[in-house]
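Forum: Protein Structure Q&A
Topic: Joint prediction for protein chains with partners

I've read a bunch of threads here and the consensus seems to be that you should model interacting components together rather than docking separate models afterwards. I'd like to see that in practice. Below is the full input, 287 residues plus whatever partners are listed. Could one of the regulars post the assembled result?
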Amino acid sequence: MKISDLLAKNEITYSFEFFPPKNYSSILELGINVGQLMKLSPSFISVTYGAGGSTQDASFDLIDYIQNKIGLTTMAHYTCVNASKEKVEQDLKFLHDRNISNLMLLRGDPPKGTKDFVNKAGYFQHASDLIELAAAKSLFCIGAAGYPEKHPESVNMDNDINYLKYKVDKGAHFVVTQMFFDNNYYYNFVQKAREAGIDKPIIPGIIPIVNYKQIKKFSDMCGTQIPDELVQQLEPYQDNREKTYQIGVDYAIHQCRELLEEGVPGLHFYTLNKSRATVDIFSEIRK
Ligand code: FAD
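Posted by a regular:
Agreed with the consensus. Here's the joint model:
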């Protein structure tokens, strides 16, 4: 099933993102959590690629398993890191041969310890390069990343939106956003995207805060603002897991309800391979 077909039906898509587990205990944990999340009948599952140092093989193994053994619709993330044209051709064939028809095509982050993303000459430099190549095959439904608070390397929002438009013009069928906590960033971003002529669905990316220090670190890296009122609620309890969980999940429920009322095309949850928060949010927003 192509995600563009799901979106064309105007039904709200609910999707969950996982990353490949790194050791035996995290494999077990992921299995348990995928089992819990399957009960929510997700529209699709996505698996990150190379993020946080995970291996590319592990990413392909996991996506193959979820698509072909569990039987859920999947979206494979794929990046420009170490991507020569030959390798990209091989990898896309590998995915297509395994019935994986949805791709989230990305540039990837600079390797640890380096600030700038510099690929070898002749290698793919931007997500748009991958999108152009994959779109020419007419086999895949393609997602691209969007940044409601702009990509950290972009000089300004207009510039970033122009490159998003370029990705859509090259063949992206939909956009999934970076996480954000203040819905106004998403609304403004969608408005700017529409003004720039981007007419594809823009699915908001949601991350419930269940570990304040971890999410603060991610947010700082991605340039995502945590609203002051939420920081003030969370900071006194940053060493109290249960209290943090309650505040973070309540906030995410409120955020998702408001987005649904505004008519978003779907909600994409960054699960961090956990299930409890997403299950609790679902039991409230789908009442
Ligand atoms: P690009 O679209 O290439 O943009 C990168 C920067 O360059 C931006 O500032 C943009 O404005 C600018 N730019 C874009 N095109 C051009 C151009 N043609 N010329 C000049 N400048 C240009 N990372 C992983 O490693 N693995 C994952 O699985 C992963 N999944 C993600 C999923 C989502 C939904 C999101 C939002 C991010 C994900 N990331 C992942 C992180 C992503 O790789 C980083 O944010 C990366 O820094 C940028 O990726 P991009 O695809 O947006 O890059």
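Residues 213 and 238 are 7 Å apart (CA to CA).
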